[in-house]
Design brief:
alpha/beta; TolA/TonB C-terminal domain; 440 residues; single chain; five-stranded mixed beta sheet
């Protein structure tokens, strides 16, 4: 489950990144803010994943409540977890995920602690009529979340008056635009999936978009792109490296990043610019909608079915199976496979690899539910054809936890049956049995 969740987040974040890139191009042509599309891209995957976990699919409730006829009842599986069991693949991936997130959080906290220690040495001052903090070699930047303050380096006074005015305007726009709150939110999203390269790409683009939006707002207040661009270049040549915890005027950008900002601020809207912006934004929305079509690992298929590799399901008979009444009618396989129903037979299908199935079920036990001591019983329907191959798997009765329901359904490929027989003829049948997850 952890692997499928990671793949799901990778795919959705890749789609969201493509959509945000197209949307940014359109919004920039229209002279509109672009940072929100990158924040939305960072939020899309986790939001869809959370929605899938919190909102049980309608198909689950429908299958659980659907009235069906009697089918073959097989013995129950009880899958227990113990603290002494070795880590499985899911547990290992979950542990690696948690460690990566912990390291990311620790790195951000360490940065904040370093800034807090430095701040004790910063001095209060008034520069060009504004209250600021003067640091030895930090900034220009804005620090603080709820009470943001402008931080300027000592060399700031060496700048010409016009350049100083632009720098202060830029930092004020960071504060007014709420960037000191937006940045911690973005860092929290990166900390949730620090192993995801698309999340880092989105974060980097968000940082750049915050600067471009700030540039646009400054030039709206004081339209002088030439002087402002010169200010960017002068500050970029001397500014200290930006911290993860700062929304900075300059993050010592490379030539490419600085060029993008200057191109953005000198771009002139054309007659066709608005039309192109609308078209690109529409295309971006269509791309983002594709993320909703990616199968959420927290839900099950609409039919409650799981694809099974027939080569994995060849078996002998189970001598413990209870024989049903003698045959009284014959129906076609097509009619039987439509829905769980009783099929006349004289020899029941048998499960021959119970130990393997229990092992797979134990691996599928959702680690988060395991650690929380949450268990439950899932009743599952299997449709076994005339060759003993599993063709369909459906949910009969939900455990009340979609993740447990999915775990029970995901082990379909591990089951091995014999074919049921009606006299000497193999027949397709539906079988049903409960699977219980519990923590001992």
């Amino acid at each position: 489950m952890i692997l499928t969740t990671m793949i799901y987040l990778l795919v959705t974040s890749a789609i969201a990144s493509a959509a945000a890139w197209v949307a940014e191009s359109g919004l920039r042509r229209a002279g509109l803010p672009i940072r929100w599309v990158w924040l939305a891209a960072m939020l899309l995957g986790p939001a869809l994943l959370t929605a899938g976990a919190l909102l049980p699919p309608e198909s689950t409730a429908r299958l659980a409540a659907a009235p069906t006829g009697p089918v073959i009842e097989l013995p129950a599986f009880e899958v227990a977890s113990s603290d002494s069991a070795p880590l499985g693949p899911n547990e290992g991936l979950l542990l690696a995920w948690v460690l990566a997130s912990g390291l990311m959080v620790a790195a951000v906290l360490r940065t904040r602690l370093v800034l807090a220690r430095e701040r004790r040495r910063w001095q209060e001052a008034r520069v060009d009529g504004r209250r600021v903090l003067i640091a030895a070699d930090r900034g220009p930047a804005v620090t603080g979340v709820l009470r943001p303050r402008i931080v300027l380096p000592r060399w700031f006074e060496e700048l010409a008056g016009g350049h100083r005015a632009f720098v202060l305007l830029h930092e004020e726009e960071h504060v007014k635009g709420g960037d000191t709150i937006l940045l911690p939110v973005a860092l929290a999203l990166v900390s949730f999936t620090p192993w995801n390269p698309f999340t880092w790409l989105q974060f980097r683009r968000l940082r750049g978009a915050m600067e471009v939006d700030c540039d646009r707002r400054v030039l709206k207040r004081r339209p002088d792109p030439s002087s402002y661009g010169e200010s960017l270049i002068r500050v970029a040549a001397r500014a200290s490296g930006a911290s993860l915890g700062l929304a900075a005027f300059s993050e010592r950008p490379g030539a490419a990043a600085l060029e993008r900002r200057i191109v953005a601020m000198t771009h002139r809207r054309t007659r066709w610019g608005s039309f192109r912006a609308v078209m690109l934004t529409t295309i971006a929305a269509a791309i983002a909608a594709q993320a909703c079509g990616v199968e959420d690992p927290m839900t099950i298929d609409e039919r409650g079915a799981v694809t099974v590799d027939p080569r994995q399901t060849i078996v002998p008979d189970d001598p413990n199976a209870t024989l049903p009444p003698p045959p009284i009618e014959t129906r076609s396989a097509e009619e039987i496979r439509r829905e769980p129903t009783f099929t006349p037979f004289t020899v029941a299908p048998g499960i021959t690899n119970r130990e393997e199935v229990i092992r797979v079920l134990r691996e599928q036990y959702p680690p988060l539910l395991q650690e929380a001591g949450v268990g439950g019983t899932v009743r599952v329907y299997f449709f076994v054809n005339e060759r003993g191959l599993v063709e369909q798997v459906r949910l009969d009765r939900s455990s009340g936890h979609p993740a447990l329901d999915e775990a029970a359904l995901n082990v379909a490929g591990a089951y091995r049956f014999t074919a049921a027989r009606n006299g000497d003829d193999p027949v397709p049948v539906w079988v049903s049995f409960p699977i219980t997850f519990q923590v001992r």
